Amino acid sequence: MTIKSFAYDNLKKLCLSLGKHNDALYAVLAIAMFKGIMRPTFTMMDKESDKDTKKYAAFREGLTEAIAFCSYIATHKLILPQGVRLAKYVNKNRPKELPNVSVRKVQNGLSLLSVCLTAGIIIPAVCNVVLKPVMDGVAKVMNKNKKDKTQKLDIKENVVQNVTVPTVYSPKLSENSKKLLAMVKTPVVANSSMKVGG
Fold it and tell me: CA separation (Å) from 176 to 173, 181, 183, 188?
């Protein structure tokens, strides 16, 4: 068996398996998982933003996708079992000339309905309730950590304590030393009456 035929066989099996067990839930769970990983990653890779701002935004994005992931599963678990009852009800009340409705088809329809309902109503509602208090708590923790760091530095500006003023030693000069200093400080002026050349 060549590598090409091996890859083809595995791809074929994967496609057939996904086709047989196709469910809208799998698609949205995969999207929520990849968004929950990739969006915070790319947010943290932004070099222009502040470090704390990046952490806050990345945590918010990850939390949002975690809420979405759990909401999809919860609604799917609640709605999908109703497919059996709904299929029985439809088959019982259908016209005699129409064939029976398969339970699997009803469940697939309900799965799609639960995904749409979750994405459009439940996830925004849960995020509206959960995100604000959680993110407020995160902001408080981040601000507290900032304050602790600045207090550890213990920087005090314009504070001078116990400063001793040094005494300046001024030596007493003798008369000869004073005359010598006066001679050094006095500029020597050249005689301007000298003529150069004839």
Answer: 8, 9, 11, 20
Is 14 exposed, middle or buried, given 0-12, 13-18 or 19+ CB atoms closer than 10 A? exposed
Q: Which two tokens stand for residue 197?
A: 């050349």
- Based on its alpha-carbon atoms, the radius of gyration of the chain, rounded to whole angstroms, reads 42
Question: For 89-102, what is each residue's pLDDT tens digit?
Answer: 877 877 777 787 78
Q: Do 110 and 83 contact (CB within 8 A), yes or no?
A: yes
pLDDT, tens digit, 9 for 90 and up, residues 136-153? 888 888 888 777 666 655
Rounded to an integer, what distance in angstroms lies between the CA atom of residue 71 and that of residue 66? 9
